Every structure is written in C-alpha cells, then in structure tokens.
Amino acid sequence: METEEQSEGLAFHPMDQFKIQPLFNDGPIHWYTITNATLWMAVVLLCVLALFVIGTRGRAIIPSRIQSVAELGYGFVHKMVEDVTGKDGLKFFPYVFTLFCFIVFSNFLGLIPGAFTTTSHIAVTGILAVAVFLTVTIVGFVKHGTHFLGLFWVKSAPLALRPILAVIEIISYFVRPVSHSIRLAGNMMAGHAVIKVFAAFAPLILISGIGIAVTPLSILAIVAMYALEILVAFIQAYVFTILTCVYLRDALHPGH
Amino acid sequence: MEIAAAAALGKFIGAGLACIGMGGSAMGVGNVAGNFLAGALRNPSAAAGQTATLFIGIAFAEALGIFSFLVALLLMFAV
C-alpha cells in the first residue's frame, strides 16, 4: 500500500477515516475503552433524545419547527409499519422506530466532515441485523409454532419443485442478516471512501501542473458525491427499516 | 519474496475483477427503476402506493453488488 500511495501522491488513505481509535490515550482497545465510535454513538443518542424530548415538550396545536420534524418522523415510520406489516405489526412499531432513528441520525451525523460514521462498521450494523433476525425468528416460532416452517415449503408450487425451492428459501432466509447488515455498512463505507478519494486528488494543483484541470473537477465531484450521500444516508435508513417490516410480515403472516 | 509479490498481484487483480460484479448490480437496479417508471407513467395514480416495493426491489438488487464490493474489500484488507 505504501508504495502505491507515494507513486500516486495520495496524501492519505481513503479507508483511514474508518479507523477506530481510543479517545483519551493510545493503547490496546478493550471492550470498555472509550473510542471515537463510542463518542459518536453517544452523540447520536443525545440527538435522538433531544429531538423527541424538545419536540414533544410543547405539544402545541400549531407545532413548532422541531415538533413538526418529530411528528413527521413518527408518522412516516408509523405509516410504513402499518402499510407493510399490517395492523397487528404495530406492536413492533417502537422497535422499528428506534432502529430508524438510530440509523438515520448516525448516517447524517457521519456526513459532517471529520465525524465518524458508526453505521459504516459491519460490527454495528451486524448487531442490528442479527437482532432483527432473532426477533423475526422467535416471533415466528412463538406465534405459529412449527407452521412457521411453512415459509420454506411453498404450497403454491408444484410438488416436484418444492424441495428445490425449500433449499433456496432456507439459504435466502439465512443470508438475510448478512445482506441486511452489509447493505447499510457497504453503502456508507463506499460513499465516504469515494469522497475521500476525490479529496486526495484535490490538492494536486500544489504539486503538479496537471492539477489546474484536476483540482476544480475533483472539488466539483466532492460536492456532487456529498449531495448523493445525503440522499443515500436517508434511503439506506429507509431501506433497513422497510426490510425489517417485510421480515416481520413474514413472521406474522408466513402464509403469503 | 517472489511468492509474496505474486500474492499481492493476485490480490489486486482479484479485487479489480470483483468490481465487475457491481456492473451487474447496476443493471439490476436500473432495470427495477426503469420498469417502475414505465409502469408509473401508465398509471400514475397507482405509483405512489408502490414506492415501498420499488425500494425493496432496489435494495435486493443492490445487495449483490454490495457483496462484490465486500469481496474486493476482503481481498484488499483481510486476505
């Protein structure tokens, strides 16, 4: 890696921003060490708390701005759960809304230059996805018992095809937490890394003549990627939440 | 020494090849979005109710592209 950086003149490595470092003193990282990931997760929690505590304090008929934002978010996720999962899925609404708030805030706070994106780590999104997977499996077995296994035995297919479909369904069921977590982490990581790659090209004007053409282009590209990342930050939180709803629907109504 | 160099070479070539998978995912996502738009322009009143399905379809198509990105990352940093 070192030789590549020198030959291309990259001032830093695009993956350096995802490094987990202890906040106070250098040393080995234990499970209790306060790192930059811990700091930014705490910031995310404080922001979510602040939004909903301040937002619901007034409870005015004509809402203030922050109350409107809190109500919009609540209504948005509530409608999503009701539409996708159905009326009986609404008892999972607090869980889904918690997931949505955590992911949307960590995605957006990660976009602040210099900030650390907690959702860019598979360790973080993996825990979220495995929690969803376990919830869905446990709910499915508690509500339907062994009938939940009917999810893998497609009744509408011809009998000869059913064993093959069962294998495919079982694989796709167990791949769910993998794709669920990697989708969020991969999107966050890739977008931030692309911004960093363009940022590494931006100071080229200081070292070589070709920079006169490259520097404005790369600054333009950073701005464009940043705008795209704002969109992606929201869409990925939305996708994670709606897939949670879809999986919950499978657990509550495994028949269809 | 030469074996290490060959391993590094294979790593970089493999990571580059893994990125071809992203092209397939791009076609998939484009297909989903294009077909949604084609359907939505025929019946705009039904389009609003199907945006959730659109995003689910995009997410499933995109997941496989993310897998190839993951393979590239594993080759670059883990192997």
What does this structure look like?
Chain B: The chain crosses the membrane at residues 12-34, 54-78. The complex is a heterodimer of chains A (256) and B (79). Chain A is built from seven helices and no strands. By secondary structure, chain A is mostly helical. The model of chain A is unreliable at 1-9 (pLDDT under 50). Chain B is an all-alpha fold and 79 residues long. Chain B has a single domain, classed as F1FO ATP Synthase, CATH 1.20.20. Helix content of chain B is 91%, strand content 0%. Chain B contains four helices and no strands. In chain B, helix 1 (2-18) packs antiparallel against helix 4 and helix 2 (20-42) packs antiparallel against helix 4. The mean pLDDT of chain B is 88. The A-B interface holds A 15, 80, 83-84, 179, 182-183, 186-187, 189-190, 235, 238-239, 242-243, 246 and B 52, 55-56, 58-59, 62-63, 66-67, 69-70, 73, 77.
Number of helices of chain B: 4
- Alpha carbon gyration radius of chain A: 23 Å
Identify the biggest protein-protein contact and residues per side: A-B, 17 and 13 residues
Q: Architecture of chain B in CATH? A: Up-down Bundle
Distance between the termini of chain A: 50 Å
Number of helices of chain A: 7
- Which H/E pattern describes the elements of chain A? HHHHHHH
Topology:
The complex is a heterodimer of chains A (256) and B (79).
Chain A: H1 2-8, H2 36-58, H3 65-85, H4 93-110, H5 122-144, H6 162-201, H7 211-252
Helix pairs in contact in A: 2-3, 2-4, 3-4, 3-7, 4-7, 5-6, 5-7, 6-7
Chain B: H1 2-18, H2 20-42, H3 44-47, H4 51-78
Helix pairs in contact in B: 1-4, 2-4
